[in-house]
Automatic annotation (TrEMBL):
Gene3D superfamilies: HUPs. It comes from Flavimobilis soli. This is Probable nicotinate-nucleotide adenylyltransferase. Catalyzes the reversible adenylation of nicotinate mononucleotide (NaMN) to nicotinic acid adenine dinucleotide (NaAD). SUPFAM superfamilies: Nucleotidylyl transferase. Pathway: Cofactor biosynthesis; NAD(+) biosynthesis; deamido-NAD(+) from nicotinate D-ribonucleotide: step 1/1. Belongs to the NadD family. It catalyses: nicotinate beta-D-ribonucleotide + ATP + H(+) = deamido-NAD(+) + diphosphate. CDD domains: NMNAT (cd02165). The gene is nadD. GO terms for biological process: NAD+ biosynthetic process. One of its GO terms (molecular function) is nicotinate-nucleotide adenylyltransferase activity. The keyword Transferase applies. It is an enzyme of class 2 (transferase). Residues 15-175 form the Cytidyltransferase-like domain.
Length: 208
């Protein structure tokens, strides 16, 4: 988009990182609320490759998580999905996600969206100080997790209250594994994707 001067207008890009194993309505409502509050032009969902903090657990192959994210976001014209993390070799670190997106979108200001549980860990993330140079951080409320922005610069992080959806991917996996419904916790297309590909089936004892 060019202004009259020919200089591109800066756009506002939300970045919703996650394992999305599977994506659920808690993720979608967080992205939608932050988009409205921050007047974002777009929110890009970025499924992780191998999450550095989930090395001890088995994560569903990236291609399935990517496709479920595409299915879940397809109907929203402002939601997109990026492959930057799943196409990068090795473990996923948010610093690399943000560097790649900055390179791809030099005319966008980035707003990285995290839940209250994730923001509490952020100072332990790789290259933590530089993260805040690359994006503004938006921490959304999440049932069962206390929001603490202690130790974080208030100019770098904003807390946003979103409708409380007590949904986690862990619970969705456990439900699918034990034959309980995931209807209305995840979008309909994701329910159908999970059953079509028999995801989370043989893992009742927590071996995901
Ligand atoms: P898991 O149980 O496998 O950890 P999850 O439900 O926590 O899955 P993630 O993919 O780990 O989902 O989360 C991605 C991001 O979305 C994180 O920043 C997390 O805090 C946030 N998030 C997840 N669920 C919710 C929810 N119900 N409300 C608000 N934020 C959420
Ligand atoms: Mg999580």
């Amino acid at each position: 988009i060019s202004g009259e001067s020919g200089t591109p207008r800066r756009t506002r890009l939300g970045v919703m990182g996650g394992t999305f194993d599977p994506i659920h309505h808690g993720h979608l409502v967080a992205a939608s609320e932050v988009a409205a509050r921050f007047d974002l032009d777009e929110v890009v969902f970025v499924p992780t490759g191998r999450p550095s903090f989930k090395q001890d657990t088995t994560v569903t192959p990236a291609e399935h998580r990517y496709l479920m994210t595409v299915v879940a976001t397809a109907s929203n014209p402002r939601f997109t999905v990026s492959r930057v993390d799943i196409d990068r070799e090795g473990l996923t670190y948010t610093i690399d996600t943000l560097r790649d997106l900055r390179r791809e979108r030099p005319h966008s200001d980035l707003f990285f969206i995290t839940g209250a549980d994730a923001i509490a860990q952020i100072l332990s993330w790789k290259d933590a100080p530089e993260l805040f140079d690359l994006a503004h951080f938006v921490a959304v409320t999440r049932p069962g997790h206390t929001m603490s922005l202690e130790g974080l610069n208030p100019e770098s992080v904003t807390a946003v209250e979103v409708p409380a959806l007590a949904i986690s991917s862990t619970e969705c996996r456990e439900r699918a594994a034990s034959g309980q419904p995931v209807w209305y916790l995840v979008p309909d297309g994701v329910v159908q994707y999970i059953s079509k590909h028999r995801l989370y089936r043989e893992s009742i004892d927590g071996q995901f």
